[in-house]
Amino acid sequence: MKTKQINISTMRVLSIALVIALGLSACGGGQPEGTIGELYAQRDSLRTARTNIADALRAVEDQIAALDTNTMIRTTTITTMKVEPEVFEHFFTIQGVVETDQNAQIFPEVGGKIVAIKVEEGDKVSAGQVLMQIDNRIVKNQINELKSRLSLAETVFKKQEHLWEQEVGSEIQYLEAKNNYESLKQNLETLEAQNALYTITAPFSGIVDEIMPKEGEMAAPQMPAMRLINTSNMYIKSDVTERYLGQIKEKDSVEVNFPSLGEKQVTTIDRIGSFINPNNRTFKIRLNVDNSHNTLKPNLLGELKIRDYMNDSTIVIPSSLVQMTPSGEEFVYTVTNDQAKKVYIETGMTYNDEVEVLKGLNGNDLLINKGARSIKDGDPVQIEE
């Protein structure tokens, strides 16, 4: 094997340093002697000699490593990924509750015994359909009696009117007959309106979800009789923190996930509230949702995935590849001429284990993926096939 020479200047430095160190040791004998000034001077000389020796020794070792063909060069096997500009989106997730404007507890307007329940739970009903009948016999008897009196009053009034037109009889008799007839007529209308209160009808079309009392029990205005729900027009309301007020707008696309159903659907923001709640610094949003399959129920919990940031051309890399120096600077490793190169970067937002790189990478870099944590700047690397 051919022996290679070590740099002569390095050897000279090493030799001079050794001579100085030996000379100082010989002059000192056993214990250092002399004035305080001489002792300080000896200390400084020894320190300088030590430094020179360490530098010279390091230089010799570096040259040996470079010239000795028997020394193995450590090469790290890595994988790489091509960095190219792409679309980056950031989303935030909040919870919302499914609601409907047609979800009502129906209360009777009068008290009385329930004589008939015309529907069952789960029945679909139309607006105006009779749901329940409360005993109204007393009011009906009053109506029948009043109708008889009204019929007589009408006959008397028409005869008085006929006589008055022929200028027969007094005006006061005509006016009394007219007043009596009109008064009874108004009383009948009042009783008929009161009688209608004993029949509970559906205020809108929907499904009878719950019937509280049973037939034969007493109904009271303060006790609910039924719950009626229309699930065809459903929507979600949610509270959004005010920091997103300038980042979302009406008609923005939103993905809604219903964990209880294992169902997802895409909708849009229908309305953004105009009021910020001072207690929690949030504003409300409303989203219409599709319930054509009748799977959504009032008060069902939904998770809303809303986009608050998008860059249509930026560098995006896995966040696991970003490393940090003790001083807080972020960096990654790229490959240049089969060597690892440390590149300092500036990152933006992070989403789904990916981070947006604002500065440092130009879109043509070959980023080290596997093996990035076991190398340092300048290390030789080999790309895995």
Descriptive overview:
About 30% of the residues lie in helices and about 35% in strands. The protein has about 375 residues and is of the alpha+beta class. It has 4 domains: about 10-65; about 75-85 and about 310-385, Beta Barrel (conserved putative lor/sdh protein from methanococcus maripaludis s2 fold), CATH 2.40.420.20; about 95-100 and about 230-310, Efflux pump adaptor protein, beta barrel domain (Elongation Factor Tu (Ef-tu), domain 3, Beta Barrel), CATH 2.40.30.170; about 105-225, OB fold (Dihydrolipoamide Acetyltransferase, E2P). Strands 3-12-15-14-13-16 form a 6-stranded antiparallel β-barrel. Helix 1 packs antiparallel against helix 2 and helix 3 packs antiparallel against helix 4 (about 170-195). The chain is rod-shaped. It starts with 7 loop residues before the first helix and ends with a strand. Residues about 1-5 have low confidence and may be disordered.
Element layout with pairings:
Layout: H1 8-28, H2 36-67, E1 76-78, E2 80-82, E3 85-99, E4 103-106, E5 112-117, E6 124-125, E7 130-134, H3 137-165, H4 171-196, E8 199-201, E9 206-211, E10 218-219, E11 226-229, E12 234-241, E13 253-258, E14 263-272, E15 282-289, E16 301-318, E17 323-324, E18 330-336, E19 339-351, E20 354-359, E21 366-368, E22 381-383
Parallel strand pairs: 1-22
Antiparallel strand pairs: 2-21, 3-12, 3-16, 4-11, 5-7, 5-10, 6-9, 7-8, 9-11, 12-15, 13-14, 13-16, 14-15, 16-20, 17-18, 18-19, 19-20
Radius of gyration: 47 Å
Number of domains: 4
Stretches where pLDDT falls below 50 for ≥5 residues? 1-6
The biggest beta sheet is recorded as: 6 strands, antiparallel, barrel
Number of strands: 22
